[in-house]
Amino acid sequence: MSAEHGEHNPIPGYLGVFAFLVAVTAFELLPLFGLLNIPAPVLLALSATKFTVVVLFFMHLWGDKGINNRLFFVPLLMAGGTVSVVMAIFGTWSLQWPVRTVTDPVTGVKTEVRDSDEVVARYQGRWKGDCNAWVQSAITGNTYCSSPWIAYTTQPAYDALKIVAAVSDPAFDGWDAKSPDDKKAALMKKGEDVYGKNCGACHQATGQGLAGTFPPLAADPVANGGDVSVHITTVLKGLSGKTINGVAYAAAMQPWASVLNDQEIASVITFERNSWGNNGGVVEPAQVAALR
Fold first, then answer.
1. Contact between 36 and 54 (Cβ < 8 Å)
2. Which carries the bigger pLDDT value, residue 202 or residue 86?
3. Tens digit of pLDDT for each residue in 56-89?
4. Cα 205 to Cα 212: distance, rounded to the nearest angstrom
5. Taking the chain, what is the end-to-end CA distance rounded to the nearest angstrom?
6. pTM beyond 0.85, yes or no
7. What is the pLDDT of residue 285?
8. How far is residue 219's CA from residue 5's CA, in Å, rounded to a whole number?
9. What is the rounded CA–CA span in Å between residue 118 and residue 101?
10. Would you identify the CATH topology of the domain 159-291?
């Protein structure tokens, strides 16, 4: 249409309306993706403004000559004013919700407070992960996840006790090529030394232990041919509250995984399983390594 007939080019107005509607829609959708945390009053104000603009736009398209293109700037200004007023009232200029104003009872000074970014990220409805406990913020009164669910395992603690670089005894050189008798002889000799330095004070040189305190190893069901994995695990990780042959022993045995290497533990267990009348067989260092 030509300017001589007093008509205006509608394209800029249409583009302005379109850009406004896209921007408002983006603000409405961003909270769904956790990118913004806009309060409900602001969202409602944006939606109402968008609705008004759409109505006016279609009134114009349908030929209501009373609606001039320039009137589109009025609802746009109204929309901006409405949003500004609502955001000012609810203190959401940073788009973190909610914000509270705290008044000092002594000085009367008002201070705007908000939750930290870490707390904001854990607001109920925004937090996406599992949660062990929901609590209410003392600052803003909002509910947030105070204890995110975290899978827990004790395995790293046991892994930390592993001997990374065990000091090898020359008696164990060429271990795989040794005969069963040579292996047992090397294990028994080393085991006797390890037992005397680390175990004899409690279990005694005779393997009889101390009545009611430290359990005996002689004739112990585990040491005397019992499950070798139980024996190895006991030495590696310690034990307390042991009952043998109906007798309870109160003292706790420390874990030896961080003190003795695989060769030393295999040796002392072999010694215990083949002394004081026990007949429990030989324990290989590889068996200890597999149970660490």
1. no
2. 202
3. 777 777 765 555 555 556 666 676 677 667 666 6
4. 17
5. 87
6. no
7. 93
8. 116
9. 20
10. Cytochrome Bc1 Complex; Chain D, domain 2 (1.10.760)
Q: Is the peptide bond before 98 cis (omega within 30 degrees of 0)?
A: yes
Domain(s) of CATH 1.10.760.10: residues in the chain = 159-291
| Block residue for tokens 């736009």 | 57
The DSSP-derived string for the chain is --GGGT----HHHHHHHHHHHHHHHHHHHGGGGTS----HHHHHHHHHHHHHHHHHHHHHHTT-TTS-GGGGHHHHHHHHHHHHHHHHHHT-TTS-S-EEEEE-TTT--EEEEE--HHHHTTBTTT--S-EEEEEE-TTT--EEEEEE-----SHHHHHHTS-SSPPPPGGGTTGGGS-HHHHHHHHHHHHHHHHHHHTHHHH-TTS--BTTTB---TT-TTTTTS-HHHHHHHHHH-B-SEEETTEEE-PPBPP-TTTS-HHHHHHHHHHHHTSTT-------HHHHHHH-
Residue in the structure block whose two tokens are 């104000």:
45
pLDDT of residue 2: 42
Q: How many CB atoms lie within 10 A of CB 141?
A: 10
User: According to the model, what pLDDT value does residue 8 have?
Assistant: 63
Give how far the C-alpha of residue 182 lies from the chain's centroid of Cα atoms, to the nearest Å: 50
